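Just wondering, does anyone understand these tokens?
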Amino acid sequence: MTNTDEQLQQGKGPRNQWKTLDKDLGRISILEQASATVSRPLVAPGLALLFVVAVAMIALSLIGASSSGLVIVGAAVVAAYMALNIGANDVANNMGPAVGAKALTMGSALVIAAVFETAGALIAGGDVVSTISSGIVSPAAVQDSATFVWLMLSALIAAALWINVATILGAPVSTTHSVVGGVVGAGVVAAGFNAVNWWQMTSIAASWVISPVMGGVVAALLLAFIKAKIAYVDDKIAAARKWVPVLIGLMAGVFATYLAMKGLRRIIDIDATMALWIGVGVGIFSWFASRPMIERQSRGLENRKKSLRTLFAAPLIISAALLSFAHGANDVANAVGPLAAVVHTVQMGDVSSSVHIPTWVMVIGAVGISLGLLLFGPKLIMLVGDQITKLNPMRAYCVALSAAVTVIIASWLGLPVSSTHIAVGGIFGVGFFREWHAERRARMLGLQKGKVVSPDERRRRKLVRRSHAVTVAAAWVITVPFSALLSAGIYYLLSHLTLG
């Protein structure tokens, strides 16, 4: 009898051997799947770490390994970390409404935002930045260069850490307020309470209320206009052909003024009057140019509200891109402004009230913001765009336009506002207006039919998630004090370790 016959008789033939092999391969496959599942969340932090290491190596090659050079390298690393966090948190306010309205996919939104954020930072980013964060701390109080360097580093570290925590908690916060809080905390420890401009801080605290309220009111008024003039008239398509070009012209004019005021100062010197006239010219041109486009798009559309959404998709995408450009131009200084101040102070040996941002420093901010958006942005984009209230292209258009309108109005009135608070306030404003409008219509229909809506049914019809409102509001309120306390502690440690 052969060996094979003996194995078959004993139940140990090739078939059983294949079964054992299949089981082993199955276990290996399960192990590979488990490893992939475990390692996937580590990809984004790993890429972010590679970026920070690359920044450190580039800064080291540019500056050198001297004791003063290592301080600049350390500041560059912290600035890169800050830029990543700004991209993860702040940019969601620009792209969230477009994604929530289904006008853009998440992938398209990330690519558009990354391109326009980078373009805004590199083309129109401010080449001069205030080193004491808009006069929060008196420059005369921190003339010692070593004290000033550790103050800036402490503020930057504290702001970056707080924005990181806020992103993990799912709360969009103001990066400007985070930096301001950091400067205040370190400034108090470095130079005392009298060094801080507390009147300026009071105006910043007032913006916690002014910004979201203004953004919400403007967004709600725009939505009310669209409902009254387009969505709730008998011939919706004819009304859209009349009013949508007007709204596109308004959007184009407002964004032209906004970009002229906020994003193009590095290229040409523009005052408020010139910016307004630029906006008027662009708005009138866009109104005329968009009329035939809307005429073509509206052909064959059914006379229903759902059909109107397609007419607002393209303007919404354009507005999101322009907001990203303006954000890159305006807010990149939050990431690299303190780094530019450190570079100037270390290299020149003196403290200046304003400094130029070197090109390599600006590149760190631009690339870091875009990379942070791509790696960590989707979480807050979904929160802003989908989890506060339900958005469609018309509602999201109102949010985007209200952000630009509110910034312009606030600038003319001299009111301190936060673009983050305005955008999120606009989303809440749209949601609360929808609640009020829906309840009003339901009450009118109920009265006509002799029905009364019960309190339980009224609560079920709430269109804004209150839990997010509480989370966001709490994060806004504690941003400045938390950043200040954290920065104070960091400055105390750094100064005692280095200054003795």
Q: What stands out?
A: Residues 44-498 form one domain. Residues 110 and 353 are 36 Å apart (CA to CA).
